[in-house]
Amino acid sequence: MIGRILSLSVRMRWLVAVLTLVVIGFGLWQITKLPIDAVPDVTNRQVQISTFAPTLGPVDIEKQVTFPVETALAGIPGLEMTRSISRNGFSQVTAVFTDRTDIYFARQQVTERLAQSRDSLPSNAQPILAPLSTGLGEIFFYSVAFRHPDGKGLKTVDGKPGWQSDGSYLTPEGERLTTELAKAAYLRTVQDWIIRPQMRAVRGVAGVDSNGGYVKQYLIEPNLNALVSYGLSVTELADAMERANLSAGSNYVRRAGESFLVRADARLKSIDDIQEAVVATRNGVPIRVKDVGQVVIGGAVRTGSGSRMGSEAVISTVLMLVGDNSRIVATDAAEKLTQINKALPPDVFAEPVYNRSKLVNATIATVEKNLTEGALLVIVVLFLLLGNIRAALITAAVIPITMLMTAAGMNGLGVSGNLMSLGALDFGLIVDGAVIIVENALRRLAERQEHEGRLLTRDERMEETTLAAKEMVRPTVYGQLIIFLVFVPLLTFQGVEGKTFAPMAITLMVALASAFVLSLTFVPAMIAIVVKGRVSETEVKPIRWFKERYAPVLGRAVARPMPFILGGVGVFVAAVLSFGLLGEEFMPQLDEKDITVTNFRVPSASIDQSTQMQLQIENALKTLPEVALVFSKNGNADLGTDPMPPNASDTYVIPKPEDEWPAEVKSKEDILRRIEERMKPLIGNRTEIQQPIQMRFNELIAGVRADVAIKLYGDDLDAMSEQARRIASVMRTIPGAGDVSAEQTSGAPTFDVQIDRQAAG
Length: 761
What we know:
With about 750 residues, the chain is an alpha+beta fold. The chain is built from 25 helices and 23 strands.
């Protein structure tokens, strides 16, 4: 069959050329569709269920929310395990499925099970599924803040929306913000009602999470003495507010042939409306809210905050839909944010603080550089060794065409382009089959020309080209098959190993298959079209030079083989001994350029205290001349995708380009050392330094942020905590161990109210 393909390719060479152009066009289109990222996504298939119940403590959350949810998920097809977090007012259950499970099927099953278990959960607990994203989903962060806080450095115009001369802020709706809390709540309102809906409309965005500011509330601060004087209670005040905040409709009224919609809108729209709401009547006189208290702008109790360059801000995270192209989605999100900025209220601006596309572009630039240099090196070697420009061009053309065909194959098999998959391509292996066919064709054409003593006719050239290709079919097939077999074991890997190395093996095997097809079709056809006229098959100077020096050594090796055999054995033994001295690592660590500094305080630290300590850290780090930007996410966010207690913070340090670093900073290690020096005087913080993607991968795969974690299982929490501290003390003695700590499970003070039921009765 292969022989017939070769013969057909030579006879219908122009058709092959046209089909090759079609394949090139298709490949160019496919390469624009190829998902691009920095590293392969090794996150397992998982569904996160977050539940907020602010009135429940950790023990009650575990008993009333976490345990019922985990129990409800048991038995779902494909479920491997569940793990959970129970904190004050928050529960998160992570259901991990097998890699063969369709993620949409898993989410559907989880949703059905949660609906069935709804009656077993507290009435105020509403489980929600985390956005359909992965460990690589956090692709874009942006901050929402005032450009000139308190109007400093800005010309103010009283009465016009924006900053006023007294330091207050007048919103476009006419609301005056006088307190820091009200200003922070307004930033959060802008994020939740103006920016977030538009950012979620960007193609490929799974969700937008927010840290910082306050969810705006209108607070009624009752005057208890006034309530007593009017004979009112706080409960009656609350009931009155519910009655005053209504909207009702009464269908239509027909008049003069027209229908008029009747609607009574009594919803509260401003502080003035709330103040004028009637609570009760005394002797025919209405008692209004302003008579029994005052109304102010407040914020809901928050479990998280955000900060930027030493000031509080709203930090938002754009989460990418699973399987999408991170570079395209991040770029689209940045462009959308630029458009949104044009319509924001005066002096409010949204600015990107972390953009994954920069890392992806840098990674792809590295891959492109390596691939380009490798391709050029192979082409130069081909020109030097083949000694025929036309033959070298035919062989070199196999490289770009193979790349385009590989891109189409990667799309079809769902493999993304990243440092592991694209970086594995070996152009020497790709052109191997084409080289031997071209070399043999040149030899046969030259010999036939020498034998005939004239230039060959077209039929003679076709005949020799076909025979040359057929002669090389067997070594070509055997060579490709051996390489294929080498990479087949990688396809059997499971879990993280499979997601890391299988894309590399698949990409290389697709490239080899593409090159093999080209060597049987494109290469013979191009030889038949291009290689005309006189053909000389002489050895080039580098080959002759090498043979002159190699022949005597080969003669001595054949005459006296034992010394050479012993020498080879000695080299092998030395290599084995040297290999034992090498360090071992699962895969090389990607330098993401950006840095994350995770800080932990005592468990009893409130979110406000944690935020203030975080601002001190930012003020210290932003003074480093090599740092361009510092921002932080403190505590838990809205969606709970990155659950942290109030005493924990993630600080993102974005360095400047290397050419802007000071003279004393030579590498990233120097930056890390200087960060630790700046943070050392700031007591009360336990620090872990990692990288953004590395940290999220660790957390989503194993539930912890560390590179290496030891998990204990048992029934006695106190005994496990003591054992964990002992293990940590042993781990600190291991050479190379950096930050070693045991997770703190106690130390958060609580006020336990014990009910005396007899007295209460």
